[in-house]
Design a protein that fits this description.
heterodimer; B: PH-domain like; 4-stranded antiparallel sheet; 3-stranded antiparallel sheet; 5 helices
């Protein structure tokens, strides 16, 4: 129980931070969450639209999705999702550091 | 996504029932090279950010704000660069038995089509000049239309010689099918020429 109170107090009143800085941290956290939600929504929506278009109007798959003769479109889609996920992870780590400090 | 009701038997939006695709192409990959080259930079920045994140002084508001701004820019850069790549894949020029269609489609902002009826094509010019264009085999096609309308230029075409031949072939096929009332069919002309030869 004491541990729980300790954690809660740490989140509510981070060590050594004034109440103004606490508000700023909350604003930062809000912005980080906003970026993450918007970015993830845009990424998922884009992939969905891309695949719905490609499936609707098909060309020969092997020809249609190749770039430089060997790069498939799905590699780029995977890279895109990985990049978005990586930024979200980095932002979450930053948010954690912001509150843990 | 693979719902059968969503799958059309057409290759592009607005394709007619008696229209079939002869060939299609995108712009040359060279225009995508700068975009693709930035992707390793983006991933490098991300990795560097993750590595240096524990050393960032998060108690300093300007530093934290700068890191946040960096993340914001990174989000923008990722979406922008990948949208460009997807646009490259979706932007196609399609040659059918009736027309040349440029499908200018992007994920959210563009959905335009520009088509040229093959019967309106008067002349085609293939342009390929310079070391790079000849070495990497790309160029542009200038399509002159009948009437006084300005010619249409399709640039950054890969293998322009092949596309040039295909368009000419499509035009010849169209003539042979009798789309032009005054056109002499190739078979008829051969018979006529054979007759002249025999008579001679």
């Amino acid at each position: 129980m004491n541990e729980l109170i300790k954690i809660r107090s740490k989140i509510t009143f981070p060590n050594g931070l004034s109440s103004d800085l606490n508000l700023i941290s909350m604003v930062f956290l809000g912005l980080i969450l906003l970026f993450q939600v918007i970015s993830l929504t845009v990424a998922l929506l884009s992939v969905r639209r891309l695949y719905s278009y490609i499936n609707r109007y098909r060309f020969t798959e092997s020809v249609y999705t190749l770039l430089f003769g060997f790069v498939h479109l799905r590699y780029f889609v995977l890279l895109y999702l990985a990049a978005v996920a990586l930024v979200i992870c980095a932002e979450s780590a930053f948010a954690f550091l912001l509150f843990a400090s | 996504m693979d719902n059968p009701s969503n799958i059309s038997h057409k290759n592009f939006k607005g394709q007619m029932d008696d229209e079939f695709v002869i060939c299609y192409f995108r712009k040359h990959w060279l225009i995508l090279l700068p975009t693709v080259a930035t992707i390793p930079v983006i991933f490098g920045l991300l990795m560097a950010g993750l590595f240096y994140l524990p050393f960032v002084n998060t108690k300093s508001v300007p530093v934290a704000a700068a890191v946040l701004a960096g993340f914001f820019l990174l989000h923008i850069a990722i979406h922008r660069q990948f949208f460009k790549i997807f646009y490259y894949f979706l932007h196609t020029v399609i040659l059918t038995n009736h027309r040349i269609v440029e499908v200018d489609k992007s994920l959210f902002l563009r959905d335009s089509k520009n088509s040229i009826d093959i019967s309106n094509v008067q002349d085609i010019e293939k342009k390929q000049s310079g070391i790079f264009q000849n070495l990497l085999n790309f160029g542009s096609l200038v399509v002159y239309l009948s009437g006084s309308s300005a010619p249409t230029v399709i640039d950054m075409i890969p293998r322009p010689e092949y596309q040039y031949k295909k368009i000419n072939q499509a035009k010849a096929d169209l003539m042979e099918r009798g789309r032009y009332p005054n056109a002499v069919k190739k078979t008829e002309f051969s018979t006529f020429a054979e007759g002249v030869k025999t008579a001679g």
